[in-house]
Amino acid sequence: MAKILLTRSGYEEILRELRILANEERPGLVHEILEAAPDWGAPEDPDFRRILARKARLERRIEYLQQVLANAEVLMGSNLPADRVRFNCRVTIRHLANGKVQQFRMVGPVEADAQNGRLSTASPLGRALMGRAQGERVDLETPAGRRSYQILDISVDEA
């Protein structure tokens, strides 16, 4: 697996989720399985299969988080100057067609959640913004057509 860029807060959030899943949810599910198994009897019981499926999903998530952490690289700085859009900065943009102003924190794909203001540097908009300066216009081709944005502000975010 290739190196995964994370912010410090992203790394801590993933570590916190892993601890909760491994130390709280997993033991709870195992206990639930052990308590209910004698009542269900046959493995064909739909409730028994459902709880085993929940356990399998939980184990896959734990394994994924462990792989992310094992390959994580917490990036604190950037080789781009402070006046350019870069990893772990906040960028405020305006959609030129509708005037909507949005603020994003530039993060890696694992932390990305555009609805909550975390834009992946690997997304089309993220790639178009990277390395650009305040005041620049960014044009982006999308399936819905061409979109244009203006960068209003760039700020350092240490989190």
From TrEMBL:
BP-aspect Gene Ontology terms: DNA-templated transcription elongation; regulation of DNA-templated transcription elongation
Regions that span the bilayer: none
Domain spans labelled Transcription elongation factor GreA/GreB N-terminal: 4-74
Pfam families to which the protein is assigned, alphabetical: GreA_GreB, GreA_GreB_N
Highest taxon in the source lineage: Bacteria
Family matches, as InterPro entries: GreA/GreB_C_sf, Tscrpt_elong_fac_GreA/B_C, Tscrpt_elong_fac_GreA/B_fam, Tscrpt_elong_fac_GreA/B_N, Tscrpt_elong_fac_GreA/B_N_sf
Domain Transcription elongation factor GreA/GreB C-terminal, residue spans: 81-155
SUPFAM superfamilies named among the record's database cross-references: FKBP-like, GreA transcript cleavage protein, N-terminal domain
GO molecular function: DNA binding; RNA polymerase binding
Keywords per UniProt: Transcription, Transcription regulation
Protein known as: Transcription elongation factor GreA
Organism per entry: Desulfobacca acetoxidans
